[in-house]
Here is the input.
Amino acid sequence: MMSTEEFLHPFEEGGVVYFPRADRLVLLNQTGRLVWEMLGEGFDREDVAGFLAEHFEVAYGRALHDVEQVVAQIMLARTDDDTRAMVPAPASPAPIEAVAGAAPLEDCGVFQFGTSRISVASSVPDITGMMWRFRHRSIGDAAGAEKLEISEAGSAYRVSFRGCVCEEKTTRRLGASVTQLLLKLEYPDTGLLAYCHAAAVSHRGLGVLMPGRSGAGKSTLTAFLVRNGFAYLGDDIIAIEESTRALLPLPSCLSIKSGSWQVLEPIYPVLRQVPAVNRYGRSMRYVEPQGNYETMTRAEASVIVFPTYRSGETTRLSALPPLQTMARLIGTHSTLMTPGTQTKLGKLIRFVEETPAYELTYSELPEAMQAIDDRQ
Here is the structure.
């Protein structure tokens, strides 16, 4: 059942498994780690269940159920483990297979990432919408720009760049591939450890990483912080540098969702003038940096904060142990930069173990800011 490409790194009593083909991390408890290691050594599920029953002094049926649960978790992590690696394009590439009803390639603009100028065209709405976040990086002039094309190709999605073609089966993996490509263009000479779906700010020279799922309130909080003395790194994708653990943003505009417009318009008058964009069924406006907030290109990570907005609740900042921190990071789509290695996974685990982390529940923005400021 185990692939030779997958690997586990010990973490407390359990471990973290990296699935390179699916680009996923999975956290296993002590039982999960034992099951993983024994299956990897060639034991069948019944033998593993027998060992667990004797080791933990539980009924065999209960142990077998636990084994099946771990196996199901592993198989779920492989649900899109069907990605083909980036391969050189043929000298005369075959035309992309036509897809009934598929949109034609749309010109998304020309952008500057690092020292690279790229002209982006996409027929995939998720990627077209993603490029809106980099409108402040638009340079207009396509002369000399390299072409990045993202399109539907039969039952897959195709990314074409610099003579190479990458095919992905799901929009999740497509988004991850484009994200990693843009990060590597932005930081061509920097070793990147991992990246998170997160916001990040800096205050008094110290970086605050704020991972969270869409709708948790991290963008609204970030917008408030950067108008009150914090410097902005990003509110979508944040990379962690491998050697220094510095926070490095994929520099995007602030993304303000419709539910926050009324609250933030007094401090961002430009919101009234910015066109609304519909993404993932939600209306949002993108506020560009120029003249609206101070930006930074990197910050030393000093604290991790997982923010959640809950109307009417008292603001609380609760310390998290490393195990819960890792679980929350994985739950917000954090993963290793490719190629993922045992060394990188070990460094990510040490980053989690050594960086103070908190869960922030808030309903009032000034109180949330004060709670974060007090922990620096």
In short: The radius of gyration is 22 Å.
